[in-house]
Design a protein that fits this description.
The protein is an alpha/beta fold and 127 residues long. The chain has one domain (30-126): STAS domain (Transcription Regulator spoIIAA), CATH 3.30.750. Helix content is 34%, strand content 32%. It is built from four helices and six strands, in the order E-E-E-H-E-H-E-H-E-H. A six-stranded mixed β-sheet has the order 1-2-3-4-5-6. Helix 1 runs parallel beside helix 2 (72-87). The longest helix has 16 residues, at 72-87. The protein starts with a strand and ends with a helix. The relative contact order is 0.16. It comes from Pseudonocardia eucalypti. Residues 17-95 form the STAS domain. InterPro entries: STAS_dom, STAS_dom_sf.
């Protein structure tokens, strides 16, 4: 299972959003690279929804280590996916490592209290 797509963005120096879904160690990993903002959040959300549907009872890990910007639309998409995962009784795990573009918005909005925030992919795949 591998999906790779790009959303074209206006020329602003920011890389386009890329999303890759793959099966790894019994989980579905959604690896995201680029800016998650109003223009790209629908693609981000669709990828997480697709992973949650494909995962059945398996865990879903959203790897945000390659994200260069996480705006409010991206946070909203994470909230929606976390609620879906909770209904499945398999919480959404996100990987932020030391990504300074992702950690502050998650911490400031206190989403780190409702999401399972992992510091590396191995941790997210084993907890």
């Amino acid at each position: 299972m591998s999906e790779h797509a790009e959303v074209r963005r206006p020329p602003s120096g920011e890389p386009p959003l890329t999303v890759e879904m793959r099966a790894q160690r019994g989980a579905i990993v959604v690896a995201v690279r680029g800016a998650v903002d109003t223009l790209t959040a629908p693609r981000f959300s669709a990828a997480m929804n697709g992973a949650l549907h494909a995962a059945a009872a398996r865990r879903v890990v959203v790897d945000l280590r390659g994200v260069t910007h996480l705006g409010s639309a991206g946070l909203t998409a994470l909230d929606h996916a976390a609620r879906q995962a909770k209904r499945r009784r398999e919480p959404l795990r996100i990987v932020v490592e030391h990504n300074q573009c992702v950690r502050p918005p998650i911490q400031i909005t206190e989403r780190d209290e409702v999401l399972i925030v992992c510091h590396d992919l191995d941790e997210a795949l084993t907890i």
